[in-house]
Amino acid sequence: MAKKVQTDRREFIKYSTLGILGLVMGGGIVFSPYLHGKENRLRPPGAVPEKEFLALCIKCGQCLQVCPYHSIKLADIAKGYGEGTPYIDATQRGCYACSAVPCVLACPSGALDHSCEKPEDIHMGVAVLEFPDTCLAMNNTPVPDNYLDKMKKFTDSVNNVTELELQLLDKMSGYEGKECTLCADICPIPSPLSAISMVSDAGGGKKPEIYDGCIGCGACEEICPTQKPSIVVKPRVSYEQQYEQQG
């Protein structure tokens, strides 16, 4: 009798385990196309089209290691599809369009296209004034005293802070109580006026206006001093798609 109970228990565990694994694998098959379809991270400079990028990226982390601004992260399992692939979270740290584009040079697989040789070659996405109602410039609201807290917190969390990061903090200091022009002032490309400028708004304030020189680096999103950035980057969207086709 005891032997039969042990056998029944083994059989129960065996088939229960197989059943759970089947559900998990089946769920992966069912849901992975949806996870893939929703994948829309901001990729590093030079990233090839997303499906090709996911196929080519070997998840080596070389791009992350050479980034002097600590802009690049590797996706963990909690991020869904593309675990281990590099991405940029512009709410924490945008890309600063390094002149030699070292992340591209470091990529050994072609996931970051080596024809991207300078900032003007970068096409990560495009900036959009997504929440104009909260824009400080449009509301004639001065820059708050704590606007740099987020950037300072990020820099403090980095183990090996670079001189470039310290220079960035120094550049963005001193705006407290002034009219907000931070998104335009921080634009890192060599000709920032080709990407963004502050223009007069009908409500009496000013607003950021985006031009076709925008590379979608996300620096403007990082520095935006509102609780939820008023200006955001749409990954893998061109200026034509966002502004010309949508009118």
TrEMBL record:
<dbReference type="InterPro" id="IPR017900">
    <property type="entry name" value="4Fe4S_Fe_S_CS"/>
</dbReference>
<feature type="domain" description="4Fe-4S ferredoxin-type">
    <location>
        <begin position="84"/>
        <end position="117"/>
    </location>
</feature>
<feature type="transmembrane region" description="Helical">
    <location>
        <begin position="12"/>
        <end position="35"/>
    </location>
</feature>
<dbReference type="InterPro" id="IPR050157">
    <property type="entry name" value="PSI_iron-sulfur_center"/>
</dbReference>
<keyword id="KW-0479">Metal-binding</keyword>
<keyword id="KW-0004">4Fe-4S</keyword>
<dbReference type="GO" id="GO:0046872">
    <property type="term" value="F:metal ion binding"/>
</dbReference>
<keyword id="KW-0411">Iron-sulfur</keyword>
<keyword id="KW-0408">Iron</keyword>
<keyword id="KW-0812">Transmembrane</keyword>
<protein>
    <submittedName>
        <fullName>4Fe-4S dicluster domain-containing protein</fullName>
    </submittedName>
</protein>
<keyword id="KW-0472">Membrane</keyword>
<dbReference type="GO" id="GO:0051539">
    <property type="term" value="F:4 iron, 4 sulfur cluster binding"/>
</dbReference>
<feature type="domain" description="4Fe-4S ferredoxin-type">
    <location>
        <begin position="206"/>
        <end position="234"/>
    </location>
</feature>
<keyword id="KW-1133">Transmembrane helix</keyword>
<dbReference type="Pfam" id="PF00037">
    <property type="entry name" value="Fer4"/>
</dbReference>
<dbReference type="InterPro" id="IPR017896">
    <property type="entry name" value="4Fe4S_Fe-S-bd"/>
</dbReference>
<feature type="domain" description="4Fe-4S ferredoxin-type">
    <location>
        <begin position="47"/>
        <end position="77"/>
    </location>
</feature>
<dbReference type="Pfam" id="PF12838">
    <property type="entry name" value="Fer4_7"/>
</dbReference>
